[in-house]
Amino acid sequence: MKLVLLGTSGYHNTDRRQTTCLMLPEIGVVFDAGTAFYRVRDWLRTSELDVYLTHAHLDHCVGLTFLFTVLYQKEVTRTTVHGEAAKLESIRQHLFHPDLFPVLPPLSWQPLGQQPIELRGGGKLTWWPQKHPGGSLGYRIDWKDRSLAFVTDTIADLAADYVPRIRGVDVLIHECTFADGYEELAEKSGHSCLTPVAQVARLANVGRLLLTHVDPTIERERKIDIEVARAVFPKTEMAEDGMVIEL
Fold first, then answer.
1. What is the DSSP letter of 114?
2. Exposed / middle / buried, residue 199 (Cβ in 10 Å: 0-12, 13-18, 19+)
3. Rounded CA gap, 95 and 106, in Å?
4. pLDDT tens digit sequence for 96-143
5. Which residue ranges make up each domain of the chain?
6. Fewer Cβ atoms within 10 Å of its own Cβ: the N or the C terminal residue of the chain?
7. Measured between alpha carbons, how far is 175 from 146 in angstroms, rounded to an integer?
8. What are the Cα distances from residue 114, in Å, to 84, 176, 199, 232?
């Protein structure tokens, strides 16, 4: 099964990166709808599309307004956006307010409940709350022979509640907004610095770590030294737009 990293930037897009969007084309599942969401069109393989949002900050949901283009002349019979009930309502009321976006795309809203979701292809999807201004969700999918976790917009910490939830996953996609040395800003904004992310991956005994949600400020992006992370967790890679991961 393929995981496609459609967007890997945080906050705003750059010439190099669009904001957060991940896709599993074979089962029609998308995580977050940042500015890269328009790229979903090129990967649509299913008649149903499920979008799971981590939270409602614009860099993770504004792409929902691209749905008319994404679905144009595609045989998609259902598009469902999943997330926390209050966040979905905020998006519906504000992002799709008639003064901002007067015609609602063909989508439905589905608040997440308490029980895991059985995905097409036999995967089990679970989620949990994370520390971030306004809150965010982390996600994990377990298949019989593989697993994936997506953690973004939170502070990497060895004592964080989510660490046991990602334990042993084959692939961890984890935000790394800042290089080391920006801990005060990371704490204030609810994001992660490089070394703590690698330490979390090592503690959770994951198979592979990909760093995403990179600070769009070019100077800071260049300061993220992947070798610093690899000294802690050798199987660390920098996520890039367009990267395809075989799960």
1. S
2. middle
3. 15
4. 999 999 999 999 999 999 999 999 989 999 999 999 999 999 999 999
5. 2-246
6. N
7. 21
8. 11, 28, 29, 35
Q: What pairs with residue 128 in β-bridges?
A: 138
Residue with tokens 């084309």: 25
Tokens of 27: 């089962």
Beta carbons of 26 and 1 less than 8 angstroms apart: yes
Q: How many CB atoms lie within 10 A of CB 106?
A: 11
The residues, any chain, with a CB within 8 Å of residue 126's CB and separated by 6 or more, are 116, 139, 140, 141, 142, 165
Strand 108-111 with 78-83, pairing = parallel
The torsion region of residue 93 among left (phi > 0), alpha (psi -120 to 50) and beta comes to alpha
Q: Does the domain formed by 2-246 have CATH 3.20.20.210?
A: no
Phi and psi dihedrals of 169, rounded to 5? -70, 150
Cα(94)–Cα(102) distance, rounded to whole angstroms? 11
Helical spans, DSSP H, in the chain: 40-43, 58-61, 67-71, 85-90, 183-189, 194-203, 218-223, 226-232
Of residues 157, 146, 107, 152, the one with CA closest to residue 127: 152
174, 192 contact by CB (below 8 A): yes
Q: pTM (2 decimals)?
A: 0.97
